[in-house]
């Protein structure tokens, strides 16, 4: 790309030679691996949340399982974090590979910023959806007659809560990634 | 020295070529985001419906008509979405004023606004996710945990919630574009 467009070139050269634009690619790689780890942990904890309890239904004891795939919100959660896990792994490798090539940094930063924003949208929605459903499971809702389920399925609910906490952490990491990329881009592009 | 001089020229070129289109696009998106989040807040915030449902207390007696009310603040997910939209709306108004006052003069402020835009994307998307998941529960119910659907009773209430969610989704897409459009602009310039 350096050969095709001359006008944009000085910008890179100045940024690689002068100390002014700060390089945050190491933090970038660390944050991406954190996001990957958070996604994997969130998925594993969510998928392993299964509990079978005996409950009384019209006086008869019934063994009823609780699984994550009984709720569409949790299915969406798992799918969304699979996407973010895959993306963060690929982008972490790309971020490592670009550390040695200062010429391509701005281009990669822009791509990262674009896709990071989309992935943030996806996982924020997933965390919100799962959190909303889990809150009703925890507290119930008298107004519409939805009773709480966490009294019965305590282990299941602990899994969901742990998964949600990790997911929230992952969303915060995604926001930090965008902030880092935005800050680096703005310190590179003269305005 | 050479690179610095070129850098300055390049910087002016970027400013001159895009400041107008960039400014107009940015302002339009901001006004759109402001209006959409405002509409979503109001539509969900005034949502209330009272209907009469027949309830059989004793099997031998005829059903008694009971008036039941559904209000938006009965479900915490809807409260979260209203608060998220209100915050985003207030922020959109504030950032609109700041952008108009600033007009691309201060670089730090521009970075600050992009950073806060990314935060708003996370906030709005999680609010939308929560409200959508709970709205889906109200629409379909969940047989596994015996949460009955409520939208067959509160039809107007549910339609209003659906409308608010759609408007809020478009509003969050506007915020996402506020983050993405500058990225695409810079990307086009360096290519």
How do the strands and helices of this protein lay out in sequence?
The complex is a heterodimer of chains A (191) and B (191).
Chain A: H1 9-17, H2 25-47, E1 50-57, E2 60-67, H3 72-98, H4 105-139, H5 154-188
Antiparallel strand pairs in A: 1-2
Chain B: H1 2-45, E1 48-55, E2 64-71, H2 76-102, H3 107-140, H4 155-190
Antiparallel strand pairs in B: 1-2
Helix pairs in contact in B: 1-2, 1-4, 2-3, 3-4
What does this structure look like?
The complex is a heterodimer of chains A (191) and B (191). With 191 residues, chain A is mostly helical. Chain A is built from 5 helices and 2 strands; from the N terminus they run H-H-E-E-H-H-H. Chain A has a two-stranded antiparallel ribbon with strand order 1-2. Chain A is elongated. With 191 residues, chain B is mainly alpha-helical. Chain B contains 4 helices and 2 strands. In chain B, helix 1 packs antiparallel against helix 4 (155-190), helix 2 (76-102) runs antiparallel to helix 3 and helix 3 (107-140) packs antiparallel against helix 4 (155-190). The model of chain B is unreliable at 1-18 (pLDDT under 50). Chains A and B meet through helix 1, helix 3, helix 4 and helix 5 of A and helix 1, helix 2, helix 3 and helix 4 of B.
Quick structural summary:
Chain A has one domain (34-188). In chain A, 68% of the residues lie in helices and 8% in strands. Chain A has helices at residues 9-17, 25-47, 72-98, 105-139, 154-188, and strands at 50-57, 60-67.
């Amino acid at each position: 790309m350096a050969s095709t467009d001359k006008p944009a070139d000085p910008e890179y050269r100045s940024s690689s030679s002068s100390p002014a634009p700060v390089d945050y690619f190491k933090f970038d790689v660390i944050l991406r691996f954190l996001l990957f780890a958070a996604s994997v942990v969130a998925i594993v904890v969510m998928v392993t949340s299964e509990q079978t309890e005996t409950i009384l239904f019209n006086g008869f004891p019934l063994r009823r399982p609780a699984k994550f795939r009984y709720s569409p919100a949790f299915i969406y959660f798992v799918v969304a974090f699979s996407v973010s896990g895959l993306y963060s792994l690929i982008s972490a490798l790309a971020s490592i590979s670009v550390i040695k090539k200062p010429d391509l940094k701005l281009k990669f930063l822009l791509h990262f910023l674009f896709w990071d924003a989309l992935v943030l949208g996806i996982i924020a929605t997933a965390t919100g959806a799962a959190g909303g459903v889990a809150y009703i499971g925890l507290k119930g809702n008298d107004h519409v007659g939805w009773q709480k389920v966490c009294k019965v399925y305590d282990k299941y609910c602990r899994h969901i809560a742990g998964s949600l906490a990790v997911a929230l952490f992952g969303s915060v990491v995604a926001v930090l990634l965008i902030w880092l990329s935005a800050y680096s881009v703005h310190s590179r592009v003269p305005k | 020295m050479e690179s610095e001089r070129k850098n300055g020229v390049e910087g002016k070129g970027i400013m001159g070529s895009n400041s107008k289109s960039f400014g107009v696009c940015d302002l339009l998106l901001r006004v759109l985001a402001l209006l959409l989040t405002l509409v979503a807040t109001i539509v969900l915030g005034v949502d209330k419906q009272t209907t009469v449902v027949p309830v059989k207390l004793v099997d031998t007696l005829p059903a008694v008509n009971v008036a039941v009310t559904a209000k938006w603040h009965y479900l915490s997910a809807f409260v979260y979405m209203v608060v998220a939209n209100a915050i985003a709306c207030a922020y959109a108004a504030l950032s609109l004023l700041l952008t108009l006052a600033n007009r691309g003069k201060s670089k730090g402020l521009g970075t600050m606004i992009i950073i806060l835009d990314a935060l708003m994307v996370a906030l709005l998307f999680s609010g939308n996710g929560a409200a959508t998941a709970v709205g889906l529960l109200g629409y379909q119910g969940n047989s596994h945990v015996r949460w009955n659907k409520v939208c067959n009773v509160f039809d107007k209430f549910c339609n209003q919630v659906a409308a608010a969610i759609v408007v809020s989704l478009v509003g969050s897409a506007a915020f996402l574009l506020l983050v993405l459009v500058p990225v695409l602009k810079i990307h086009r310039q360096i290519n």
